Amino acid sequence: MSIDLAGISAFVAVAEARSCRGAAERLGVTRSAVSQAVRKLEDRLGVALVQRTTRSVSVTEAGEALLRRVGPAIAEVGLAVEAARDLEAAPSGLLRLAVSSIAERFLSGPLLAGFTAAYPGVRLDVTVTDNEFDVVAEGYDAGVRLGEVIGQDMVAVPVSGPQRQLVVAAPGYLARSGAPAHPRELPRHRCIGWRPTPRAAPYRWEFAEGGREFDVAVEPEVTTNDMWLMVRMACAGGGLTFGMEETFRPYLDRGELVPLLEAYCPAFPGFFLYFPDRRNMAPKLRALVDHVRYRPPA
Question: Is the domain of 147 the same as that of 191?
Fold first, then answer.
């Protein structure tokens, strides 16, 4: 038996609207055309799908069973048609992103400036936040986080290479206080720590030795949620601090900061742009994925 897509589409519209008139308006056809399409489908199946009265339409038990099976498929077909129609259209609209404050490459400026120049029809709304939440429930199109904290039900596209965290300090501080030889010596030093929110505990500094991961609960003399304050304090000789190597790289290259305990700071997977697993991605999000995807140097 061939599939009567027109009849199935008409039936789904009637079942969801509970009205032939409402279904006709939704499909852009006449009410009689909808009624005839549904009746034809019922004749082919040999079962009543809807009960009609002069005032209302109700769905039979067989109709409800069919609706549960074909309703999502018809909706998916509609999305596919819209996506195909949009393929040649220039990406446009508002693209809302929730981005970790330590995603240095993504937030550095050139990456997003290049995207807005390439796609002037897309407007970006970027919220920089380290709070963990459901980006979909909060109305965001996508987020950028370290791969280890992204849910397995998300599509994740790399936007950076491997990362690592480092302990750093200014040469002046090291001249006065010396350098720790092992992470367990960190509590004896002045430390500048990070916390995501006022009520959260300071972040525990993470290391690895002999393939075993461990962390150290330093007791920061200064704690903040602002990475740039941490960098400025460290450069001023205020103590040791801990963060992403990419963030510290300009200061390391200029000699304003010195890396410490590198043997205990292994690399790990970096940052990813993540979003729900949709078969038909909006053109504006597809454009961003193609633009920011990390491609390792040849």
Answer: no
